[in-house]
Amino acid sequence: MWAKFCAWLLRVFGWTCDSGPAPDKKCILLGVPHTSIWDFVVAYLFYARFPDKKAYCMVKKELFFWPLGYIVRAMGGIPTDRTNATTLVKSIISAMEEREEFTLAIAPEGTRKPIRRWKTGYHTIAKAAGIPVYLCYFDWGTKHVGVWKKVELTDDARADTERIQQEYETLHLKGKNPKGYITH
After folding, report:
1. pLDDT, tens digit, for every residue of 92-136?
2. DSSP-H helix ranges across 49-183
3. In this structure, what CATH number is given to the domain that contains residue 41?
4. b/e for 63-78, b at 16 or more Cβ within 10 A?
5. Does the global pTM surpass 0.85?
6. Which residue range forms the structural domain that includes residue 7?
7. Which of 153, 144, 148 is nearest to 125 (CA)?
8. Which of 47, 111, 125, 175 has the lowest tally of Cβ within 10 angstroms?
């Protein structure tokens, strides 16, 4: 019932879903461009359309106060302490190991502000956990959302991230706040 409601809500808001979920039981989804909190809403509704799937995302621990914390957790939010990267990676990998299925959605930009150099934490997590990474998008210009393609990672996080940024450039995506998304 919830899945149908989420699919209906996306249609009401004018969004077209271009794909199904990622096929792997455990993976990382990169969501681009991230220029607004509404990106989270669109991404959540997209993945919630699949009754047997759930995507998790890292949310700063400061947002887990009552009653908001309950809602954020129900939507797949995992409280994270961004002050210690090592602890953050270990806690995410631990959460993955506790579940049979675990899809982690990450905005590689790391912020809703315009940024040229994306973060590589997704790479660290994927390599440490031995899971694949998929490129996903939410294009506010065309109102299309989907899982685009799987990328192969090397041992060079910075080079892989630059290659992924170049891949995204070919899509000519527009963020909800267009000035918040700048290309490589």
Report:
1. 888 898 899 999 999 998 777 777 889 999 999 999 999 999 999
2. 68-74, 85-97, 121-129, 157-169
3. 3.40.1130.10
4. ebeeeebeebeebbbb
5. yes
6. 2-180
7. 153
8. 111
